[in-house]
Structure formats: structure tokens, C-alpha cells
């Protein structure tokens, strides 16, 4: 498919460092509210999956604090936000508190291996260090690692879907799941493997399970499983950068039968759900997250001692009991029983990729070939106020970052097959600029997007609602077999009427109503106005008001939801 451009109504390396747009959380001191989100709401915007109001800063901004005795600076998987009470108890017992900076697996591995984590963090606490171990240069950076708890990847299925399929939960295999998807009898949602720890583990689980690999996953194993992987990912109807938003979106959809995520996330959902999912660990094996608390060699001596005290406490019987009861993760202490609902049956551990090239190749295949393509409209405020404080320059920079460079790795540019539409507006829609990234030849489309971004000019008023209507109308004209989304960036209050948009949205076909709006709070935009839009459409609010680097951080984080 070649790049194409449509123009109507003419009128007048930061990316990798922001893959997760991490938020700093002083968990033990602040006593943050527990949640199951893989990624908290940026800047404490209080979105559907976030911790909300913690006053954190984006990665690449203020960053972690200077080291202080008794305070561990930890780069972590953000689902650990549900450990707040456990860590509060740990501080009372040991005097050690934890300052978290959230990160995805790939971003954290890059920071550690490149040395960027040296002096900034004392420890890492990811769901797994398996990907990090594929980076030989990272070995010298790790002092020691100690598993604290575990959770396998599982499939949560609606009871009515389970009955329709005739499955016995204890007999279900990954092959059975793939066969049901291929037959059009099962649909599901999962998080983005590039930006979410649970999504990465899910991808490895599916590839390993369908390949039949008996030892370290190889490129040949992945190639053997490729036809079945293509069939499997045809059934993915929901994607997300976080487990929290995925759960919220899933609850609003009647066309999605299942979720694939960590067992602990699914059981935590069930704890609050009116209609619980049946949580299944496939019989032929699982990939398990062991959450190793890992001290870095660059950490000061005091931090290493704090890490030792904290690890000993967390592996003690009292803490292990609290962890499994609060989070539904499995204890590592032999004398502590798993929480009610955790099936004690043993499952084989599926093999992980044996080389970084295999893991990266699997991620690239998922992004550019296996998953459904994306269709996204960027609704961009280019009103006169965007000239203030070089807001238009920051917008151009953030959008240009998404086009990557010639050497961009997985997740660092728009995907192959992706349809990207820029819809700049002022008093009205100025242009509709659409480009499709051609597999094997992405350059022309990416260059065209850069050119269109450069040509953005601030002029006119702020017709947010009319522009959103135009975005929905545009998406309604194209391929329905895609992940569709709208990204709204505005720096002010809309000059047109919300009731007109609400009435328009109410009249959309049900399938089009499933297109979420991801709104970016920027400049002087109205939080209440944008919150209404995201709640109405099932989207999420991203806060980009805390510095020059926050807009491109927000745009990059939204990529996990597209």
C-alpha cells in the first residue's frame, strides 16, 4: 500500500526515554491508593487507570530525587502501585521507604544497560528481568536480584463465552485458545507489549505456547508459529498501554469475550466486578513474572543496606501473607498459603527467548505484521494562542518524534500499515491530511507527515467539538478492521457548544462509539471539558502541563493505546 494524502478545506533521543512516561510515586510515604494499572495516569490526572493526584513528574523531567538515607529510588513496573500499603508497613518495620519511577520493560532495560540508570536509581523492580538478561552489557550493572512474589500470564474468559465454547478450564491450552479465535468464536483484549510489562509477557506466552518450544525460544520457533500467531491476533479487539484502562474499556464492550493478562490483574478485576471472569492458566504452560527486587551496583552503600532490609521484610511471612491477600500474587515463602482463588495446580514454565534478537524480532513482528493495523486522527489545536510560549513549536517537535528516524527501533515510529491523519483546526477544520505507512517502504509516508507537521501555523479560534465530529466522520469512511482512536490536543477552551457534539455522538452507530478520544491537557485547556470528552467516548486524559518535555511524553505514552 503506498502513501496517500488527502487535503480538504485549505485555509491560510527523547522517544525511548519516554516509552512509559513514568510517574514518580513516593509510595510508602504518600500511601497511594492501590490499583492494577500497568501505567498510572500521567502527571496525576486521575484518569480511569491511574493513581491520581500524586504529583509525579514525567520521565525525562525532574526525575528521581537525590539519594537520601532510608529512601530507595526504584525504577519499577507500574502495576506495583498496588503495593502501597505493604510498603507503608515495610517503612514502619524497617525505616526504609520507596520512591518509584514507573517504566515499561524495554525502556527500563535500555536505561540500565546504557548506564542512564546509574546514580539516578538504587534498584529496579520489574515484573521480570528476563529481557534485561538478554543485554550482556547489563550484567555488570546488577548487584543482586531477589524474587518477592509471582504471577503467571492467564486468560480471563466471560462465563457465557466459556459455556459457548464448551471448555473445561483445567483442560484449556494455548492451541485451544488460538483455534477458538481462528474460528471466530473468541475475541479478547491485551496490553501493548512494547509499553506494558504484562503485554510483553503475554506475547511471549502465546508465541512460546503455539510454537511448542521445549527450550529457549528461537527465531525458528517463532517462524514456525507465525501462521498461527497471525490467526491469534486477528481476535484482539482491545489494546491498551495499561491494564487499568484495559479493564475499564473491557467493561464497556459487549463484543470482547476475554482478557489476557497477569493472573493477579484478572483476579483483582474480579474482586470488583459484578460478573467475574473465569481465570484460566493454560494447561500447556505459562510465562510467570517473579518481580525480583534488584539492587544496582551503582547504588550507594547505604542504599544497598536499605535494599537488604526491605527485601528481608518483604520475603517474611507477614509481608508475604499481606502481598497475596492484597494483590493476588503468589507468595515465594514456602510456609505462606496463596490467597483464596489462586489455583494451586502446577503449570510448566514456558521458555523465554534465548537471544535479544529473537525477543526484539517478535516485538517487531507484532507491531508491524501480526496485530490489527491502527487508524488514528490527531485533532490538533492550531489556534492563535498556540503561538504563545512556543506551544506550536513543542507540538511540532512532539509529532515529529513519532515519525522516528532511519534507525528507529520497535515502538519508536508509526507502525507499518498504520493510517495517520492530521486534522489541524482553528475556527474550523483547516485541513485533513492522511498518510498510510507502507510496509517495507515507510519513508515516503513518514517524510510526508514531517512535512505536514512543519507547515502547522497558529491562527484562528478554537472549534474543538466541530473538529471532533469531523474526526469521527473521517474514521467512519475507512476500514473497520483496525484499532481506531482520536487524539485531541488543545491549549484552550472550546468556542463551540458541547451539546452539539454530545448529540452527534449519541447518534453514531455503536461500532463507531467504540472509538475513544485520548485528550491531552496542555497550556490553558479546560480539564473539566476534556474529562467530559474522554469519559463520554471511553478514552483517557493525559496531562502535559508540567514542562517542555511533557507534551512529547504524553503523545508517546498514547501510542500504547493505539
Walkthrough of the structure:
The structure is a single chain. The chain has 20 helices and 19 strands. With 562 residues, it is an alpha/beta fold. Strands 6, 7, 8, 9, 10, 11 and 13 form a 7-stranded mixed sheet that branches. It has a 6-stranded mixed sheet with strand order 1-3-2-4-12-5. A 6-stranded mixed sheet has the order 16-15-14-17-18-19, with helices on both faces. The chain is globular, with a radius of gyration of 23 Å. The two termini are 20 Å apart.
Summarize the structure.
With 562 residues, the chain is an alpha/beta fold. Helices cover 36% and strands 17% of the residues.
Tell me, rounded to a whole number, the average pLDDT: 87
How many DSSP-defined strands? 19
Largest sheet: 7 strands, mixed
> What is the 3D shape?
globular
Helical proportion, percent range: 25-40%
Stretches where pLDDT falls below 50 for ≥5 residues? 1-62
Radius of gyration: 23 Å
